[in-house]
């Protein structure tokens, strides 16, 4: 990212071309700004140059003659426009020479430094938080920052820059960040299309060469965060999450290309692919990875002390790896719309109450009670399940969503009909749900508890319950006959 304060000697501005909008009779000049390795383009009319010049003459007292004069006749001729392009380029270059280390706000905004430069971008944020920070925090303690803004805050913490005047001072940004409880980080702000674009290709920001997925930053300014949400941006952009672990309670990462949970929970750990200990010791080892490297284990410094909710919807996860053990207090685990085929590594999560695996590739569930016996809510919609025998001993289960699977046989319902606490069941979208008298036949499998069950979001009607009662009696009769 650009920082004119540090890189003014390696900065340049040119006006490489102009463009005529013949339909409206307007000429635009393309301005190319370079600060170090960062480049961006700005489109301006001569009218914009004139307004900038008036501000600079008034505020900084530069010469009125510096800007080439306006021409009323023949100002659309190609030769004249080419001459003016050269004059405007010279004008901007002289301004950069004049303002060697710090640009006036008018010039910074004219050249879009407040969009791509650390100092001027943060000045805009500082002004916003100075004027509206209290209102933003009181209405909702959640705020959306772009990857570029988070990167700028991270970089600014290590820059020995002089303080900016009044409302532009960086202290306003720090004060806001330390009070923030929930942070949302996206590639850009106010652009609904980023969820499709930024997670598949390296899309630059605006008309610059800055790619958000390549920005590495820390979150040290956000010391009281309880919720962190990333969308279309990998958490591997974070280089240090240690300060978040004592307070963070919720992590949500959506619409990225991550394939493993350790890319989130161990995002800044170089040994994220090592085996994670099945039980975290009481005391944290002082030898970070010295002892760990010998046995392929990770130290307990990676433990998330307060994390209770992990939502990784809409990624490319293929498995539940051992890194989930670093969050032993996890209560809600949402892994919808991924590519998971097998469920494992959940035995070390004794507090897990909700597991959502809808929209995956799961085709079987074998003895899940051995690893998730305390589950209250299980969502398995839009998978490839045909049999339910592996759910028969989930005795704590209250809510079960099996919609849009491949369950054909009514007898499969018997595996879950004896779950004593089950209250809601969804089977819609399965081949079974298209059979004659589907609802009363399913309710009949629950016998005396049929009236307590909500099937496909609706309790049984009196007619359905009466029919289920008759079918239940017939089922019991058949069972007694088989026993004899």
Fold and architecture overview:
It holds the Pfam family PX. Keywords: Leucine-rich repeat, Repeat. One of its GO terms (molecular function) is phosphatidylinositol binding. InterPro entries: Leu-rich_rpt (IPR001611), LRR_dom_sf (IPR032675), PX_dom (IPR001683), PX_dom_sf (IPR036871). This protein has helices at 4-7, 46-59, 78-98, 105-110, 113-116, 118-139, 147-156, 171-179, 194-197, 262-265, 292-295, 414-417, 438-444, 462-483; strands at residues 11-21, 26-35, 38-44, 142-146, 182-186, 227-231, 250-254, 309-311, 332-334, 354-356, 377-379, 399-401, 424-426, 454-455, 458-459. It contains 14 helices and 15 strands. The termini are far apart. It has three domains: 4-113, PX Domain (2-Layer Sandwich); 120-268 and 299-424, Ribonuclease Inhibitor (Leucine-rich repeat, LRR (right-handed beta-alpha superhelix), Alpha-Beta Horseshoe), CATH 3.80.10.10; 436-484, no CATH class. The protein has a twelve-stranded mixed sheet. Strands 1-2-3 form a three-stranded antiparallel sheet. With 484 residues, the chain is of the alpha/beta class.
